[in-house]
Design goal:
Elements lengths: L7 E3 L7 E3 L3 E4 L9 E2 L6 E2 L6 E3 L16 E2 L2 H4 L9 E4 L8 E3 L7 E3 L3 E4 L8 H7 L3 H10 L1 E2 L3 E2 L2 H5 L2 E4 L2 H46 L7 E3 L6 H4 L6 E3 L2
Length: 248
Amino acid sequence: MYKRYERYKDSRIEWIGKIPEHWDVVKLNYLKKKPFLYGANESPDDYDPELPRYIRITDIQSDGKLREDTQRSLTWSKASHYLLEYDDILFARSGATVGKTFIYKGINNKACFAGYLIKFSADNNKVLPQFLYYYTLCDSYNFWILINTIQATIQNVSAEKYGSLPIPLPSTYDQLCIIKYLDHKTSEIDSLIADKEKLIEKLEEYKQSIITEAVTKGLDPNVKMKDSGIECDCQEKSDPLARKKLIH
């Protein structure tokens, strides 16, 4: 599927294994442009498109996108210290979703983030944010989260702990090639998933129609029908099969 490098070396990290010989392994702290920042401990306001969107852990879907049905805002004065910049990455630090990540690609106005999230701003001279985000979706990252979760009253990974996250680091050119490859492949797979979901939806409708046909008309398509005499609601009125029953 892709061309392997000629030589590999031991990363000296068990869950990463071998990496290309010219790659390095560095800690996340080495790649930051600014210090890690914890989010705002503020109660959300109703969503207002004129105010910054307030991003919380529960807003982040498993596909890395934001839910549209849970939008909330913060006032500019409350949000000012927690505003996101393009390509900032958010790390979830607590609870069942610890380790979940989100890369900010801009919203019409601005966005800020809540207290159970940690903001990471990458030094683009060292790492491309999209490459780093892709790394947080891989098995090696998930294993690191598993072994570094602090078991207290709730699961927790602090900013200090995230700073020690080991990252296999290619050159920026290699990073860009990997990003382009993964953008193409994930888009291709997402398209296939969407097509399958449409097919599943059609099959579900077909299954429902077969069940309805069998339980309201039976298996003989030539049998005579009569009105059941049962008043029906609007949904039933739109389905003439629901108003019929077999003549015995």
